[in-house]
Amino acid sequence: MTTLTFGQAAFGLREVKLTSYDGSGAVSMPAAMLLHVAPRIAAAEFSAEGVLIGASGVLAGADWELEAGAISLAVLAKLTGESTVAAGSTPNQTLTLTADAGVEFPYVRIYGRAKGEGTGGIYCKMYRCKLTAIEGTFRQGEFFVTSAAGVAVSNSSGVFEFVQRETDAAL
Fold it and tell me: Quick count: other Cβ atoms within 10 Å of Cβ 12?
């Protein structure tokens, strides 16, 4: 029987944070439900005379998805490059995010944490992410779920990084 070491038996998403590309301005994604990472592989095969001669596979980037069981205008602002405007005072406060056509989405960093069995955990870090899709639905009898997806591209730190920690800690 194989014995697992710290951080290998990840169970449940515990935390997702987004920052600006430079690592500043962290915002937490409330009620985070999903952080999905799918490496993008650039692959090719070389065949001659009916025989496979060689193959190549190279990490080209990654696709990512996020889901949260809440609407966070701070998270939407971070992903889209827009800003929020707060107005009023209790009990009449408002927070407004206005989206406009033609705005180029910024690169952001995405960090996720899953609890491991015992005291450990595993962290996912994507250093240069661009939003390519976002949606949510208001539906009778259901909570709103924010869904976002995009691509992670390489920077000086790589495309993504997984870190197993013997002692779990918040992001």
Answer: 9
d(CA 137, CA 69): 11
What one-character-per-residue DSSP string does 23-79 give? Answer: S-S-EE-TTEEEEEEEEEEEEEEEEETTEEEEEEEEEEEEEEEEEESS--HHHHHHH
What is the phi/psi pair of residue 36, to 5°?
Answer: -115, 130
Average pLDDT score, the chain: 93
Gap between the Cα atoms of 101 and 90, Å rounded: 32
**What is the pLDDT at residue 116?**
80
Tens-digit pLDDT profile for residues 40-83: 999 999 999 999 999 999 999 999 999 999 899 999 999 999 99
Could you tell me if 75 and 29 are in contact, meaning their C-beta atoms sit under 8 angstroms apart? yes
Query: Is the preceding omega at residue 91 within 30 degrees of 0, hence cis?
Result: yes
How does residue 5 score in pLDDT terms, banded at 50, 70 and 90? confident
Residues 6+ apart with CB under 8 A from 93: 86, 87
Q: Which of 92, 78, 169, 162 is nearest to 125 (CA)?
A: 162
Share of the chain above pLDDT 90, in %: 82
CB-based burial of residue 35 (10 Å sphere; 0-12 exposed, 13-18 middle, 19+ buried)? buried
End-to-end CA distance of the chain: 33
